[in-house]
Amino acid sequence: MTQKLDTLEAALQSALGDSITRLVRDRGEISITVPAARYFDVARTLRDHPALKFEQLIDLCGMDYSQYRDESWEGPRYAVVSHLLSVSLNWRVRLKVFAPDDDLPAVAAVTELWTSANWFEREAFDLYGIVFEGHLDLRRILTDYGFIGHPMRKDFPVSGHVEMRYDEQKKRVIYQPVTIEPREIVPRVVREDQYGGTH
């Protein structure tokens, strides 16, 4: 396994050079981070270079690094992480790119390279608000068309902003402010000194 990772690391370094800003080997896998400006070109090289041959994108997701591991995070907030597989060479790599602007996170779409990225990119747009430039059909995929916000962002309220219900009088679905009362999640045995009492 170590020799195979050595071979993959050398191939990545040779093909991508200074496009790799960070390379991590951990738990038998390699993760590389690349700048947003070079993301699409790096992805194409990973797919087409004869020493790499990552023919398949098997996963792509968004990430919100604010409060990463319950600590403050220095650097861009939003990232896109892809998992690539080379069937012909039997190896994998994790590709990470950070969106340079936290207010409007955007990176290049890779649907032109791997069609499997289509719904994954739509999901990351829907849940994190990451824009994939060049995506031909970037619209919500999991939340409703009228949904406000991006529910996987760490600052999104657990109860959401609005709820929908069927209105019998209007004979249609309506949106209204959330009516869920915040509930106490600390058990009574912890928050009340005399819980259970002594007789």
Kindly describe this structure.
This protein has 199 residues and is an alpha/beta fold. It has one domain (2-142): Beta Polymerase, domain 2 (2-Layer Sandwich). It has four helices and nine strands. It has helices at 2-16, 39-48, 117-128, 188-191, and strands at residues 22-26, 29-34, 56-64, 78-86, 91-98, 106-108, 131-133, 162-167, 172-177. The strands form three sheets. The chain has a five-stranded mixed β-sheet. Strands 6-7 form a two-stranded parallel ribbon. A two-stranded antiparallel ribbon has the order 8-9. Strand 4 (78-86) and strand 5 (91-98) form a beta hairpin. The mean pLDDT is 90.
CATH topology, what is it called?
Beta Polymerase, domain 2
The second-level CATH architecture is: 2-Layer Sandwich
Query: Which segments are poorly predicted (pLDDT under 50) over 5 or more consecutive residues?
Result: none
What is the spatial order of strands in the main beta sheet?
1-2-5-4-3
Helix share bin: 10-25%
Give the DSSP E fraction (strand runs of 2 or more residues): 25-35%
